[in-house]
Amino acid sequence: MKIAHRFHDFSRIGPVYLVGGSVRDSVLNRPSCDHDFVVPGNVRTFAEKVAKGLGGRLIELGKNSEAICRVVSGDEILDFSPMQGDCIEEDLKRRDFTVNGLGYDLRTKRLIDPVKAMDDIKSRTIRLISKDAVVADPLRMLRAFRFAAALGFDIAPETLAVISKKSALIRQSAGERIGTELFKMMEVKRSFHHLKQMSDSGLLTDLIPELEPCRDCRQNEIHARDVFEHTMATYDEMETVLINHAVLWPEYARSISSYLRAHDRRILLKLAALFHDLGKPATRSVDSTGKVRFLGHEDKGADIVQDICARLRMSGKNRSYITLIVQKHLQPLFLFDAQQRDSLTSRGIIRFAGKYRDDIIGLLIHSVADQRAKAGLGSEFLSDFIKFSAGVLSMYFSGLRPRIAAPRLLNGHELMEYFNLKPSELIGRLLQTVEDARLNGEIETKKEAAGLVCSLLELEGDAGIEPATPSSGGLCSIR
Fold first, then answer.
1. pLDDT tens digits for 231-253?
2. What is the C-alpha to C-alpha distance for residues 25 and 145, in angstroms, rounded to an integer?
3. Which helix (H) or strand (E) holds 110?
4. Cα–Cα distance, 90 to 164 (Å, whole number)
5. How many Cβ atoms from other residues are within 10 Å of residue 288's Cβ?
6. In the structure, what pLDDT confidence band is assigned to residue 440 with cuts at 50, 70 and 90?
7. Rounded Cα gap, residues 158 and 414, in angstroms
8. Judging by beta carbons within 10 Å of its beta carbon (0-12, 13-18, 19+), is residue 282 exposed, middle or buried?
């Protein structure tokens, strides 16, 4: 027990046991920064002495018999808990899964295994210690899939059977705890197999009941799957695209990797894949020709996503990002369709990039996964779409990105001051036109921007709108 060796000196303070995940990880030769200890005596006194010896910080979590004393030392977290039951064996038997039911006596240097954890570690199996464990804490059902994904283990059939029978209990768990476990599961590069198992057990739709109406919601021939099946396929394809983005877009692999590493975007894109078509059941219609339509499903889906994110207690930043991907997930496809009709202009791509900036990376990644999940599309379409996405990225990284980052030539206050304009929709239209021209390389200076505004205002006059008169010394007189 290499990791336990570092903590042997703790036994000089008093009886103490290293337990749970860090013992399991030590057996598996996995790194661990979080360590759990069980103390038969006074936990706070014990933890205070450890904190003093390590020069760490002591934090008390919880109250009464459930209180945990946490010592933070550098990058490591050491949690000290009171013993549950009369002995360490009883304590370990009250834990969730056998693989977490290992203990190590730091005083006698003895491994303690009252639940046959070593057998399940060798067979790479996640197994509930007790069927009643999920009643005591329903979140353990979700943790089963999280541990299986993180460790690359399989869930024992009898444990899956318990989860299928008790899945509705998960609704009793706090949204924040559910969100945390989902994030941890989706940190794993390949979690689709476990998400599929969650779906088969009924746990997924008990966690996200908004997914249930997607079952048997039929689509058109392009999809060849109902909305739920397409959603699951999109999640699967999302993981494939995230893993292989450097193969799909080798020229921009470094920039894309940097984008994905920031702000948990890999996880958020997986969640967006799971949520992107939630608005379809409520917006489904069939026109006079028999064609199935889902008009406005992206806006409806964005509303639903807001509710889910709030329920899972996600941060405002994460909620905004997922909502953006869901609400705008059709934008790349619209641009591609325009290109296929020979009606796409560089201005259209510029406006797309100018509006979403680096998030065009997330939107394009999502869109590629979404198209790959449509079983009715041919390989030629997918190849052309990936080439199109590469072209958009090329325009963005080769010239648009630095221009977008530069300050605008004019702002709303300048327009109103120098052209005697009042607040109105006209201000927004003028600013957008000037910005489009700047990004397109048509204008570069304030003087050129002012000239463009002057000409635009003259056109407003020709259309029957009284043109504004530039104030004396205003922008039109800039040299």
1. 999 999 999 999 999 999 999 99
2. 17
3. strand 110-112
4. 27
5. 5
6. confident
7. 70
8. middle
Cα distances from 88 to residues 19, 101, 127, 477, in angstroms, run 9, 10, 20, 85
Q: How far is CA 383 from CA 15, 37, 344, in A?
A: 64, 54, 18
Q: Are 123 and 141 in contact (CB under 8 A)?
A: no
pLDDT band at 41 (very low <50, low <70, confident <90, very high): confident
Type of residue found at 318? N
**What is the amino acid identity at position 451?**
G
Note the pLDDT of residue 79. 94
At 384, phi and psi to the nearest 5? -65, -35
Quote the CA–CA distance of 405 and 403 in Å, as a whole number: 5
| Range 43-46, long-range pairs (CB < 8 A, 24+ positions) | 43/67, 43/68, 43/69, 43/80, 43/81, 43/82, 44/69, 46/13, 46/14, 46/16, 46/80
- 34: three-class secondary structure by DSSP: strand
Please state the pTM of the whole predicted model.
0.88
Distance CA 228, CA 216 (A): 7
Q: How far is CA 137 from CA 153, 170, 186, in A?
A: 21, 9, 21
Helical pair 379-395 and 359-372, crossing angle rounded to 10 deg: 180
Q: What is the pLDDT of residue 117?
A: 97
- Cα 43 from chain centre: 37
- For residue 458, count CB atoms less than 10 angstroms from its CB and return exposed for 0-12, middle for 13-18, buried for 19 or more: exposed
For the ranges 128-132, 193-197, 390-394, 457-461, which has the lowest average pLDDT?
Answer: 457-461
Tokens of 376: 């009715």
pLDDT above 80 (res 81): yes
Are 130 and 121 in contact, with CB atoms under 8 Å apart? no
The rounded distance, in Å, linking the Cα atoms of 199 and 57 is 42
Amino acid code (one letter) for 190: R
Q: Which two tokens stand for residue 284?
A: 């489904």
CB 93 within 8 A of CB 133: no
Rounded Cα distance, 427 and 456, in Å: 11
> What CA–CA distance (Å, rounded) separates 112 from 106?
11
Burial grade of 366 (CB within 10 A; 0-12, 13-18, 19 or more): buried
CA distance 77 to 45: 17
